[in-house]
Structures are given as C-alpha cells and as structure tokens.
Amino acid sequence: MLTAIEQFHLKIRHNRWYWYFSIFCRILLAYAFFVAGMVKIVGERFASGLSNKHPMGAYLEALHHTGYYYTFIGIAQVLAAILLLIPATVTLGALLYLPIIINIWLLSFAFRFEGSFVTSPLMVLANLYVLFWNYDRLKYLFPIKSLNSEAILKKPATYNNRFPFMFFTGVVLIAIATVLFARYGYEVMPRNSLKDCKAQFKGTTKEAAGYRFCECIHEKGNPLDSCLAEFE
Description:
globular, single chain, 11 helices, 2 domains, 66% helix
C-alpha cells in the first residue's frame, strides 16, 4: 500500500498539470487566509455585515471580543499563507493551515453559514492536495518503519505534459457536487438576511412555517437548533 502511494506520488510529481494545480491551490489558499487574517490583525470583525442575531454573526461577534486571541488567529492565518507561498516551507504552511480550515468548515456546516458553506470544504480538499503533493516531506512525520528512505524529491528536469483528464474531471465534479449540496442539501437554510431567508419559502406549502423560522433567527436571535425544531 505504502509503495503504491509512493509510486503514485512520484508519477504525479513528474506531470506538469498536477504541478500547475498545486501552485493554483497554494495561491488561492494563501490569498484567502491572508485577507481573512489581516481583517483580524487590524481588529475588524470578520463578516461585519452579518447581523449579531444570526447564529454565525453572534459567534463572530463574540470571537471579535476575545482580544489577543482574535489577533492570534489572524496571525496564524497570515503565517500559514506566507509559508504556503514559499517553496521551502510549503509543507509546514499546509500543516498549519489544515486544522484552521477544518475548524472553519465544520463551523460553516454547523451554522449552515452561506459565507463559507461552499468554499470551506473545497479549501480543505485543496489543502489535502497540497499536503499530498509534498508527501515526500510529509511521510517522515509518520512512525511507519516500512517507508521508503528516498530523499526529498527535487524538481524534475522535464515534465510529462499529458493532461490528466480523469483527475480534473473529478475536481470539477466535486466542485459541482459541493455547490449542489449547498443549494439542495438542507431543507432549510438561515441565509444571511431575513429577506433572503424568507425567499426560499415564498410560494411553497411551507411558507408560514418558513417565515416563522426566519423570524426566529433574524428577529428573535434564537439558536439555530431551537428554530429548526420549531420549524419541524
């Protein structure tokens, strides 16, 4: 199994398109965390347009008032972004990035927060891809005696230019599936405003219950679970 993984890793490391995709992932991941981290470092509330009565808005407002802890999260995000952009430290950056983005992903799903409901799972997958791209460095962290003792891989003198259609088809399908789940995965979403929340129920048989759910969230500021229970 480990030998097969190493052989597959060596194969993709010699393909130009996999290399381009690793750079693409690194740049997008770094950009997202640099922007989000700088917001925290300068002391602004993240997603400031989101009402404090919204479950995610209430969480972000409380997080904003944690003082240096809030700043610390921002510094960690900016540091992870910078490390991702430097070839010599990309593995360290991806390792620092992973627990932060997994936390954001789970938080987004727990609150059904549209702001990162689609992007956060895709960022987790992109982060895992970057880690696998650097498997030759990462593998030494695992206490497995049967690992190949080959040295850290260097950039190939020439790349294989064959386009991996199956891989990129899978990437596109995963992205589409993520968007479709965000749109149809839940019967009800709190959305980011009262107007948008009510729009999903307008003209349906659940309009009255749906409107009460939206008011429960956006006007009364009740927890998501209790509003969902009332809706059901």
